[in-house]
Each structure stands twice: as structure tokens, then as C-alpha cells.
Design brief:
Elements (H helix, E strand, L loop, with lengths): L12 H11 L4 E5 L4 E4 L1 H5 L8 H5 L11 H7 L3 E9 L5 E3 L5 E11 L2 E6 L6 H18 L5 H20 L3
Antiparallel strand pairs: 1-2, 1-6, 3-4, 3-5, 5-6
């Protein structure tokens, strides 16, 4: 996890967050409630998703939150939230949600504090072996985040598996 922010106020969960972000095979960020990036894994940093940048500015280069963003809902519930979205660029080059075609993405928002959450997308696009390893990381991390409640990790993994199936349906070959 790469950050220059002082996260000591969040206690020991930050160590778990760091290990989880670094284990993910996709861009992953830790964000404040206002969608400003606080920390990123190495993959995200390589794409300009760094401290101080809003996630939608860094990922999609737009000046407002993504149309499928569920960060506010995840933070208000205090529970991990997973969502599969099908999106494509419209005539103006803006990403929009579509019913068919486009790109399938699994999107995830994991609250780690009342004002802080992890966000990552696209596990459905990684190779099966790396996905399996990621499932174990999700189980481990969400087990730390929500001890005694395995439903969060089960739902998150099911969301990814659903996106894998949808991605396979619309991918040639």
C-alpha cells in the first residue's frame, strides 16, 4: 500500500487493509467518504490513482462519481457492497451503464471505518488461478473486518463469479 497519509487514527485495521490492497491483482484504493484516494496498491499508483485524486477522476477521467457508484450506501450501512455492472462509453466518451454489450465489471466497496472504504473492480477479468487466490484473500480480509459473519465474503465472491459468467457470455471464443 502506497500512501503518505497519516492513518494511525484508524488503528490496527490499517495493517489488514495494506495486506489486502497489496494482494489484489487489480487496481485497488482506500478512499475517504468524499471519494478522495488516501492510499493505493502498486497497480493503482502506476495508473495515477494516488493520494488526493478522486477515484472517478483517476479511473474514468470524469468530474463526477461513476453512475454505478455505491460508496455512500456501503458507508452508511457499514457493510461490504458488491455490484456487477455492464458499461460502455457513450457518444461523448463518458462511461454509462447499459443493458447489453459493453464491458462487464465486478465492483466492490468495503467500509473499514465510518469515513473510509476500499474500492476495487475487475476481478472477473483476471485468470482463474489468480481469482481463486483473490477469493482466499477476500475471505481472510472480510473475516477480519466482519468477524463471525461469513456472509460478506460469500456474497462478494458470488458477485465476482456472476460477473465471470456474464463476461464469458459476451466474450468471443
Amino acid at each position: 500500500m502506497i500512501t503518505t497519509a497519516d492513518l494511525t487514527a484508524y488503528g490496527t485495521i490499517i495493517g489488514d487493509v495494506e495486506r489486502f490492497l497489496d494482494a489484489l491483482p487489480v487496481d485497488a484504493v482506500l478512499l475517504r467518504h468524499d471519494k478522495e484516494i488516501v492510499a493505493s496498491n502498486e497497480s493503482a499508483v502506476g495508473k495515477g490513482l494516488v493520494q488526493g485524486v478522486k477515484c472517478h477522476e483517476g479511473w474514468l477521467h470524469i468530474d463526477r462519481p461513476c453512475p454505478w457508484c455505491h460508496a455512500k450506501k456501503a458507508l452508511s450501512s457499514g457493510r461490504p457492497l458488491d455490484h456487477m455492472v455492464r458499461a460502455k462509453a457513450d457518444e461523448n466518451g463518458e462511461m454509462v451503464v447499459v443493458e447489453e454489450g459493453g464491458i462487464i465489471m465486478d465492483a466492490h466497496w468495503y467500509p473499514v471505518a465510518p469515513d473510509l472504504y476500499i474500492h476495487f473492480v475487475g476481478i472477473c477479468h483476471v485468470e482463474p488461478e489468480r481469482r481463486e487466490k483473490t477469493y482466499r484473500e477476500i475471505e481472510r480480509f472480510l473475516g477480519e473486518l466482519t468477524p463471525g459473519d461469513s456472509t460478506a465474503s460469500i456474497e462478494s465472491i458470488k458477485s465476482i463469479e456472476g460477473a465471470v459468467v456474464e463476461h464469458a457470455k459476451c466474450s468471443p471464443g
